[in-house]
Amino acid sequence: MIVAFQVRSLLERPKVNDQARGTCMPVLRYKKIGDRPFTATGAGWPEDRFDMEQPEPHTLRALDVCNQLIHYYWMQTITEGKAFASMLVFSDYQRHKWAYQIRIEDLLKLFGVFSEESSAITSVAFE
Questions:
Q1: How many distinct structural domains can be found in the chain?
Q2: This protein's superkingdom (predicted)?
Q3: CA 78 to each of CA 10, 75, 85, 88, 89: distance values in angstroms, whole numbers, following the listed order
Q4: Are 90 and 74 in contact, with CB atoms under 8 Å apart?
Q5: Residue 4 pLDDT > 90, yes or no?
Q6: How high is the mean pLDDT of the chain?
Q7: Quick check: 78 and 41 in contact, CB under 8 A?
């Protein structure tokens, strides 16, 4: 979560170059089904409110990934064997539309882009 705040802070200011700013990552998204809202205190689980049988491949921009993690309404870990492989997350805003499955390997690659020196803007030109 802290890294998501840091990356979003870089994206909201002219601190990274356009290549880093345009970084996206693959996710699976699940469409909200039915009219009943998902609430953490209400009856049901994500699989009761989202079409978990038909995931759609999708791409999220770095800023959108950060906002999903920062403003999450629901976050659930998904393991493969004993490994923490991915997470299901949706923000308060998106909980009536989509849930996103984010692979941890892809998330680390995304955050890694912003740790490279080549992502930084290191000079300014005045015209």
A1: 1
A2: Bacteria
A3: 29, 10, 6, 7, 11
A4: yes
A5: yes
A6: 88
A7: no
29 part of a folded domain:
yes
pLDDT tens profile 49-71: 899 999 999 999 999 999 999 99
Domain residues for the domain of 86 are: 2-116
36-67: buried (b, 16+ CB within 10 Å) or exposed (e) per residue? Answer: eebeeeeeeebeebbebeebeeeebebebbbb
Does residue 125 sit within a domain?
no
C-alpha span between 41 and 122 (Å, rounded): 48
Q: Which helix (H) or strand (E) holds 6?
A: helix 2-11
Q: Is residue 21 within 8 Å of 9, Cβ to Cβ? A: no
